[in-house]
Amino acid sequence: MALDRWLALVILLICLAYGYAAYFTMDALLPPIMKRSPNWPSSFPKVLVIGAILLSLSILLGLEKSPDKSDAADINLSRLHEYQVGQAVLLLVLMVAYALLLRPIGFLAATFLFLSVGSFILGERRFGLMILVAAIAAGTVGYLVDAEMLEGLLAGLSTAFTFTNIMMVIGGCLIGTFIGMLPGLGPMSIIAIMIPVAITIGDPSAALILLAGVYYGAVFGGSTSSILINAPGVASTVATSFDGYPLARKGQAGKALTVAAIASFSGGTIGAILLMVFAPALASVALLFHSSEYFALMVVGLSAIAAFAGTGQVSKALLMTFLGLMMATVGEGVLFNAPRFTMGVMDLQSGFGFITLAMAMFALPEAIFLVLDPGRSKTGDGSDSGKIKNLRITREEARKITPVIGRQSLQGFFIGVLPGAGATIASFLGYAVERNIASKEEQEEFGKGSVKGIAAPESANNAACTGSFVPLLTLGIPGSGTTAILLGALIALNVSPGPRLMVDEPQIFWAVIISMYLGNLVLLILNLPLIPYIAKVLAVPRNYLIPFILFFTLMGAYIGQNNATELLLLVGFGICATLFRFADYPLAPLLIGFILGPLLENNFSRAMQLYDGIGFVWERPMTLGLLILAVMLVVLPGYRARRARLRAEGVADGVIKVEATGRGDLARRLGADPDLNDKGMGVSFLAQNAGKKSVTVNLKHPKGKQLFLKLVKTADVLVENFRPGVMKRLGVDYNTLKKEKPQLIYCAISGFGQDGPWVHRPAYDQIIQGASGVMSITGDSESAPLRVGYPVADTVGGITAAFAVASALNASPRGSFIDVSMLESVLATMGWVVSNYLNAGVEPAANGNENVTSSPSGAFEAEHGLLNIAANKDEQWILLTDHLGLGALRERPQYATREDRKRNRLALKAELETVLKTRPARDWAKELNRIGVPSGAVLTVPEVLEMPQVADRGFLKTFQDVPGVGRDISVTTTGIKLDGEAPRVDDPPPLLGEHNNEIWTDLGLSEAELTELENDGAL
Hints:
GO terms for molecular function: catalytic activity. By secondary structure, the chain is mainly alpha-helical.
């Protein structure tokens, strides 16, 4: 049983124990009055354990297979006029919405929305510019019509730009950035420590500016340890480590830190702009969210992460999410003081610590892997890994991250506005959204060092930090634990946050907002120049780096809880996390579930109390909508994966071979076995057609042609191998077929292409081998020209067509005509021979087994066979001669240089063969390969097919007792593996017309119609 199933079994056992406690033990300890409530401390755990058990069983039973990526949806650009009409309609709707929103949300916010959404409808996609222009325009107009707000802004400007407050901004940012780099002391801890300092200052504006600078400075700096050593400093930077650390390991730590700094600055700045514009309006919107909506919003976040963090298996990611949620229930409940699942251990009364779990999930396994794999500590730049040679990002990378920063700054800000959501949820949702909407190729880069994967969470969490000040300043409601501490500091300073703050003390309100602009600028100026020095940690030798990481991890866990038991938990969880990584379980969902678990249970419990049960799900439309979205986020990737898997389970299910009625493909009658030829299953046919389906149709018959057109409508690709003009005479050429299927990819393979003087010449492989010049260089001066020993022109033509079709399938919009010339395909594979003639004037010659580009390089006589040697480099020449005991050859002038050896290659070959002939070729090959000289015995086809190298990779496929053949047949596969697995070919080569009934009935024909068509000669 695979490791992932063993772990699923272990989790299942844990779930059973957890469920027993939830269903039987906990309720027995409760007073009778609590048992009559629909919401007691075991309600939430009971729901969790059912889902976790089902997911564990799903993995144990292998109900979900690892899928390939499904194709992206087509984009239809042909209906431009209707699109313009749609724009006009949307703008009219926007005008009506503006009129309706003007009074509820205020002039400033409504104007900003109108300008930005209007620009978006009209095609503007530069989000940063769009937001900036809309904010400036709305703000300018708003302040011109609101003299009181303008006066408050001016008072805030004068307050913020005093020398004292500027120093507070700088000091707060420096302290926050440093603390953010250190796991264990998060922004909450340091702000709590700084409150006495803030109270001592006396001035509320200066004190709040200092504390705010510490807050967003800590979030800004938290990305550093996430990127460099995979140890997130604060919860909101966990998502940054998903791509930041892999990019740093590639030797691009400077780029990762630069992207993080730019994204953090941009997110914070955009958030400050939005705070200025939207603060009054969003305060009232935030009040519309009740506990049920917060619960549903967090379910959406967990679903998104689970669906897109898993490596191809949603069940594993969901199971880890449930495991994290279950771990979050250990200790005292959110709404109840009764301890849960502590097993009598006093140190677990307060639950597991976040820092302990974060260190165990990321930093400790990384240290273990560094020990197990010493090369892992080396980044892509080798010995220069600690030198940051280039902090710049390319123009293409800047183009990629700009819309990401715009989108996630907006999304992060609005999530931050919601009390209880905060920067952590914003960062995870930002990462999940960007991964989901990325192209298929970009999705594969996420988790491996994608700049988008760094920009998304960094811009989202910094914008969310700014957004969290909206409920704090305008409603007096803290949006997170950190802003709750800030609320306490405000009250201690005799400042009453709420709706009257903007009116009664505008200098404080606006000074804080303006300081955020200054703070983000200060953070960027401070951090960018420090990147080369910060990234020096990557140059630390592993024998120092690993102990440092381990100490850093232990201290982070100890400082976080000030409890030695946390260190034991750290080690235990770290070992489990390492096993999970070996079994390819994603760890991020577990940590995210643990972080969001208390908030999720809190809001779930409150909603249950308010609605006396689960009725809040359908009684609150917004809650129901969010939960439906969560289900879609989990189900849709599985649906897309299933479609992709059905498409990718070998070419078998996807290729239909259309053959002429009665006779079929000529290859059916070609081959060395007359019996198979008589049965229409010649060995030439067997070589290329495993897994395909065969139908017959008479294209010269009108009804046959109509059937063919019907079949084409269901196809993505059509490949034909007729002489140019044949398909047009039959009435089924590309111009005809694209009317039936505009997205069709039509590939025509012919001897000489679709135009040119030789266009109408007939061509088989033999003809192309002669015409291409390949025969003229095959053999030696005495035997050439010789035919290559297999149909190389047919094979190369087919491979060229496959490359072209793959490119066309990824093009947008779909639909193209591909012209493949077998002559040019073969010439293209002779690139270095052709280039020698075109660019060096050297006429290609037949050199037999000699490699004319180097010497000694070619086939040499050994005992019992030929031995190939390719000593193409000078160091290989030295190794070869020393091993053969012929070091003296290097002293001879005729062999002194590479060019000397090439000119005297035949004499040198004779010298080497005097020694090589004394032993078998296979013995020499083993020894020479071991010392670094590429060598190999010259094998026959039967010999290589019997080699373990071929058998162990599953290159050969045997079909037993094939119908119509009466015996076993063996075929070769593609030699390709995708993510370690070869494409499956489940069916043997088909008999002529074997799938007529299956294919034609799927297209709607009845048995009677098929019989009639066969009688008419159409099939």
